[in-house]
């Protein structure tokens, strides 16, 4: 995404595009957050191919939908709501992944601690 101009352009609802309700609402929310589909996939621990499938064919379900909604900072039902306002919710902090074990290892390395007990 290239700044506010691109983000503003993406906030327009395009009903001519053949995309799922989830895809339309997630695209609008990602534009408000200045994030990409790839970042969303990484944050949710999903393969980018799955995300492309949701854009073209349908909606994620269950735990996947919950993870995506949490990353986007909106209630699940809003991602499937035709009246969704992507600006109505505060922008959440957005983490790439959710691998707490890896984050702990990284934190120890940054602190100069190798993580081993003495």
Short structural description:
The protein contains 6 helices and no strands.
Account of the 3D structure:
The chain is an all-alpha fold and 118 residues long. It has a single domain (3-86, 93-110), classed as 434 Repressor (Amino-terminal Domain), CATH 1.10.260.40. Helix content is 51%, strand content 0%. It contains 6 helices and no strands. The longest helix is centred in the N-terminal third of the chain and has 13 residues, at 21-33. The protein starts with a helix and ends in an 8-residue tail after the last helix.
Indicate the proportion of strand residues.
Answer: under 5%
Given the structure, what is the number of helices?
6
- In this structure, how is the largest beta sheet organized? none
The CATH class turns out to be Mainly Alpha
Name the poorly predicted regions.
1-10, 97-115
Rg calc: 17 Å
| Backbone shape | globular
List SSEs in N-to-C order: HHHHHH
Can you tell me the CATH architecture?
Orthogonal Bundle
Number of domains: 1
Spell out the CATH superfamily: lambda repressor-like DNA-binding domains
Total strands:
0
CATH fold naming: 434 Repressor (Amino-terminal Domain)
- What gap, in angstroms, lies between the N and C termini? 47 Å
């Amino acid at each position: 995404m290239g700044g506010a101009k691109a983000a503003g352009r993406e906030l327009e609802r395009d009903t001519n595009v053949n995309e799922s309700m989830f895809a339309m609402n997630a695209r609008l929310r990602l534009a408000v957050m200045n994030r990409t589909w790839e970042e969303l996939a990484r944050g949710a621990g999903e393969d980018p191919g799955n995300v492309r499938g949701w854009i073209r064919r349908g909606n994620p379900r269950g735990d996947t939908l919950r993870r995506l909604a949490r990353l986007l900072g909106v209630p699940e039902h809003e991602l499937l709501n035709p009246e969704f306002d992507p600006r109505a919710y505060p922008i959440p902090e957005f983490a790439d992944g959710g691998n707490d074990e890896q984050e702990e290892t990284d934190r120890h390395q940054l602190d100069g601690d190798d993580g081993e007990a003495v």
